[in-house]
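User: Predict the complex with EPZ.
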Amino acid sequence: MMAMDKIRILGNQNLRLRGEIRISGAKNAVLPAIAASLLTEEKLALENIPLVKDVFTILTLVKELGADYDLNGNSLSIQVPKIQSEEASYELVRAMRASILVLGPLLARHGKAIVSLPGGCAIGPRPTDLHIHGLERLGADITLEHGYIRAEAKSLRGAEVIFEKKTVGGAENLVMAASLAKGETVLKNCALEPEVANLCELLVKMGAKIDGIGEETIRIKGVDELGGAAHEIIPDRIEAGTYLIACALTQGDIILTHTRPDHLETLIEKLRFSGVSIESINSHSLRVKGTPNLKPQDITTSSYPGFPTDMQAQFSVLMTQAEGTSIITETIFDRRFSHVNELLRLGANIEVQGDKAIVKGNTPLSGAEVIAMDLRASASLVLAGLIANGETLIFDSEHLERGYERIEEKLRSLGAHMERITD
Ligand code: EPZ
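Assistant: Here is the predicted structure with EPZ placed in the model:
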C-alpha cells in the first residue's frame, strides 16, 4: 500500500503571507526536454530542473529505454548512447500521461516504439489521436492493440500536419519526430504554450533546423542526426501563478524571483481586475500585494496565451473570497472540477453546471478533511486551507509533489502553518 501522505494546514482569515520565494523550473518544459535526450547519442546538460515527482518518473522511463543520467541539485546531465528498449510500460504511463512524449523521439531515433495508451485521469480522458495522426502523416505505421500504441517507421518523411485542435504534447511529439525526418515538415495550428518554444530552442541547440518557434506554424527541415547541447529550463508559470493566488487570498505581500512575468500576462490581468496589485520589478521578478476587497471575475480557460486551464482550480478558490458571483468556464478538459466537491466541504459556495462552475463569494471557509484528486486540484485545496479557519487535512497529497518543488518549505517561509504527515 503506497504511503498515503497527508498535508496538515492550520489556516485562518488573518494569515498574511510575506517574503520572497524563488520559482522553480517548469515541469511541463523539463519533461519534453528529457524526452528529447532520446534523439541523440550525445549528452544533454539541462539546468533549472525542478525536483518534482514527474521528473523522477520520466527519468525512470528513459533509463529503461537506455539513458544514463546524473542529477546533481537542479542540474541534469543525460545521455542515451543506444536505445536499449522501445517499450514505455503501462505502469509508468499510468503514473504520468506525459510519458507519451517518448513516442516521437523513439520513432525518429530507433524506428519503433511501443507506448501504453495513457487511459484517463482525474481531469478526463487523455486522447492521443492527434499525436498518432501526425506521426502517421510522417510515414509511421501505427496500430493500437491491447492498450498499447505500436508504432514503426523505417524512416520518417517530412509532411504537412494540421492539428485539428491545439495540443501541447502533440506539437512537442511532432517537432521532435520531424527533427530527424527526411525533408521538410510544416506543423499548422500548433499550441503556443512557452514550453513548446522552450523545447524547440533546445532542439535548435542540438542541431535541428526549426523556423516559426513560438508561432502557430512551425517549419522543421529534418537533419540526419542531432548532437548534444546545454540548455536552461524556463521557470514554471503555473507554480508562479499558484503563489500569486496564495498571496492574493491572504492579502499578503510577496516577491517571486526567477519567474517570467511575460508568461503570465492573462492571469496577471485577471488578478489586477480583481483588485490585486502586481508589478514587474524586472523581467524575472514580480511583486504581488493582496487586497481585502476582491472583485468577482468570469474566466474561460483556453490555449495559450488565454487563461491557463492549469490555473482554473486555483483561481476558483480566489473567487470564493470575491464580493459577488464568478463564472468559471473550463473548455480544455471535460472533467476538471474534481476540486469543487472538496471545496464545498470547506464551506465554499460553488455549483457546477456542465462546463461551468458558478462561484459565489464572499464565503468564509472552515478547515476540514479533504481529498486531492489531481495535481492542480490538490494545489487549490492547499490555497483554500491557508485561509480556512482551523485545521485542514489533505489526503492523497502525493499529487502535490508531482508538480510543486518544496511547496511546504516555500509556503512556510512566507508564514504559512503547514506540515506533511506520512503514515
Ligand atoms: C499539457 O498536457 C500539460 N502537461 C497539461 O498540464 C496542460 O493542462 C495541457 O497541456 C493543456 O495546456 C504537460 O505539458 C506535461 P493537450 P497535454 O494535448 O499535452 C485534447 C498539469 O497540470 N487532445 O494540450 O496532455 C485533450 O484531451 C498538466 O501540469 C486530443 O483530443 O494537453 C485536451 O482536451 C495537466 N487529442 C486538449 O486536446 C490528442 O491527441 C489539450 O490537450 C491530444 C490532446
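DSSP finds 13 helices and 26 strands in the chain.
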